[in-house]
Amino acid sequence: MDQVVAHARRDHPDECCGVIAGKDGVATRLYEMQNAERSPTGFTFDSAEWLEVYRAIDDAEQDLLVVYHSHTMTEAYPSRTDVRWSVNTPGTSWLLVSTRSDEREVRSYRIEDGVVAEEELRVTP
Predict the structure, then answer these.
(1) Which of 59, 81, 38, 10 is nearest to 94 (CA)?
(2) What does the angle CA 72 – CA 113 – CA 74 come to, to the nearest 5 degrees?
(3) Which helix (H) or strand (E) holds 79?
(4) pLDDT band at 98, cuts 50/70/90?
(5) Which of 51, 36, 50, 39 is nearest to 79 (CA)?
(6) Residue 42's domain is classified under what CATH number?
(7) Per-residue confidence at 123, pLDDT binned at 50, 70, 90?
(8) How far is CA 24 from CA 63, 65, 68, 69, 99, in A?
(9) What is the number of structural domains in the chain?
């Protein structure tokens, strides 16, 4: 969690993005990615980088568990664009970090068939 928040703060005022992989629902690897849009209001994975990360996850026999990104001016809640993008990553959680203030704001969601449901965040050492 600390790595995700640090990534979001480092990339501010642009949105950050990345994914978390693991096995059996346990996160084991974070992949910080470049926001190809370099925008404070949106993110896109670079297609070549995404292919490289996807292959690394597959080669490690892990699963894509989480897509994460930041919102720089709004709360940590999925936007309409996030909901549309979620169809490309079925079964994953969407972790959002808001960098609109110095207060730590991190929330996680499942988005299925356009329905957003917040889920409990559990961080284990």
Answers:
(1) 81
(2) 15
(3) none
(4) very high
(5) 39
(6) 3.40.140.10
(7) confident
(8) 8, 9, 19, 23, 30
(9) 1
